[in-house]
Amino acid sequence: MALARGNIRGYEFDRMVLLFSMMDGPREIPCAVSASAMDALEHASRTATSQREEQFLRLRDRIEQCASRKFDAGEFEGTPPGIILRSIDFRG
């Protein structure tokens, strides 16, 4: 089953990631995308913290496709296990 769109949890300044979730049926999969990855996707430099959620929404389809690929490959990190997306995940 393909992952479905979940919720936006917001920007976490300490880790410089935007938190969101994807749904595997009824199970919520925690996900995060780094600020630097989003800036690289938009060829931007240092988007303001207050604009991170808007940036995520513009890039959401690409970010969620990448999260789905990592999910299918079983590339989980952290506790609880989740998907972390960095700039390198969008290359290629």
Could you walk me through the main structural features you see in this protein, from its secondary elements to its overall organization?
The protein is of the alpha+beta class and 92 residues long. The protein has one domain (4-85): Shew3726-like (Double Stranded RNA Binding Domain), CATH 3.30.160. It has helices at residues 35-42, 52-72; strands spanning 4-12, 17-24, 27-34, 83-85. The protein has a four-stranded mixed β-sheet.
Largest sheet: 4 strands, mixed
- How many helices does DSSP assign? 2
Stretches where pLDDT is under 50 for at least 5 consecutive residues are: none
Task: Say which CATH homologous superfamily is assigned.
Answer: Shew3726-like
Tell me the strand order in the biggest sheet: 1-2-3-4
Helix content range of the residues, please?
A: 25-40%
* Known CATH architecture: 2-Layer Sandwich
- Which structural class do the helices and strands define? alpha+beta
Distance between the first and last residues' Cα? 25 Å
What is the radius of gyration?
A: 12 Å
- Annotated CATH topology: Double Stranded RNA Binding Domain
**C-alpha geometry:** globular
Strand content: 25-35%
CATH class: Alpha Beta
Q: Could you tell me the mean pLDDT? A: 95
